[in-house]
Design a protein that fits this description.
By secondary structure, the chain is mostly beta strands. It has two helices and 31 strands. It is globular and about 75 Å long. It has a single domain, classed as 7 Propeller (Methylamine Dehydrogenase, Chain H), CATH 2.130.10. 2% of the residues lie in helices and 49% in strands. The N terminus is likely disordered. The two termini are 35 Å apart.
Length: 427
Amino acid sequence: MQKGSARNPCTFRPRFVHAPRKDLIMSKINVVAGCWDMKSSDPSQNGIAILSLDYTTGELTKLCGAYGPHAGTVCVSPNKKTIYVCNEQKNAVNGINGSGGSVLTYKFDRDSCQLHKVSELPSYGAFPAFICTDHTGKYVFVVNHGSYDVTTHYQCNADGSRTLKRTYDSGCVSMYSTDKDGVICSVSDIKILSGEGSGHHFETHPNAFKLRFPGLPIFSHLVGQGSPHPHSVNADSHGNVVVCDKGADRVIVYEIDYEKHNLVERQVFNTYLGCAPRHLAFHPALPFFYIVHEQESSISTYSFDRVRKTVTEIQTLGTLPTECNIKNAPADVRVHPNGQYVYASNRGHNSIAVYRINQSDGKIALKHIERIDAHPRGINITPNGAFLIAGDMTGNRILVFPIGSDGLLDLAHECRDIFSPTSISFL
């Protein structure tokens, strides 16, 4: 079916090779893929891969890789000279049990096509799940998700009775400073997320979670929301840092203090109870951002006053077709560089939902749900807006989708033998 034709908003479209684009200036761009096999400690199945994307054909070719770190998330410095990696483990520091994850700095030598690790520091928490930089490149931010493990302890009271005390890994935000070469050199602040997870509410109110949209949760709230679990951190060009805490159903806004080199909390916004806000994407020009929820197949639009540091929810829509009641977990969200479209990945339904953005109020409208033969954990859009890249975590491959002028996707190429790609960035 050709683009522009009337069609069901959720159809499986045939694959075909996209015709060469004539409006592209650059001929190639390097893609950085974080690879993390949650079920394997084999170093050869964890690490980062550097690939070359041909803007003309959409062909993706692997150049080199660095094996070892459980690279759940990667990001690149603003000047495109440095790669930062989350080593998403609980026992990464000197192999010590419970020592937490680590944060690594890599340099890519374009002439020799080799990666070089230049630093590694503790993440100061378990399972660092997301990493980003501020717009200047002076700071790097990491959120430590923590495990779902619970430590059981019975406290002895004065009257001889016993009270159950449960403890969890700390969910926290770690802020690092970089040196003149962009290398992470020291931690400058750590924010421990306080309070309980939403799961404690569901223990006493088991029917409190009400599904608003099609799709079933992938895990129990009692397990997945037992404590704060920050899953993403994003920084804008105004010195604001926004954290999505899926464990406690909240969005936390911080402001960077460039003199004290720390974070100052400005607002805590409580989201819909049980939805588990996971990933966020800023609009490139307008004062809005979009969040996908892991426990509810939905996406929300927020207005964001960057000066007052305040967040207001505007709208929430589903990410699945009507009456599609399968287990599903939205994973990633991206806004097209032209600001016209939002893309959300679905794991379970195995699809990418495409929304059009109203430029006056930031609201979105579902345009199409693209079914794909993949488990799309991480997605990203090339800087020129020509392609959407998706990592097929369970299929060990990366998919390239040309983006049409109408925002819709066509599958052009895939690169195989990339073990468990979970995060995509550009170098």
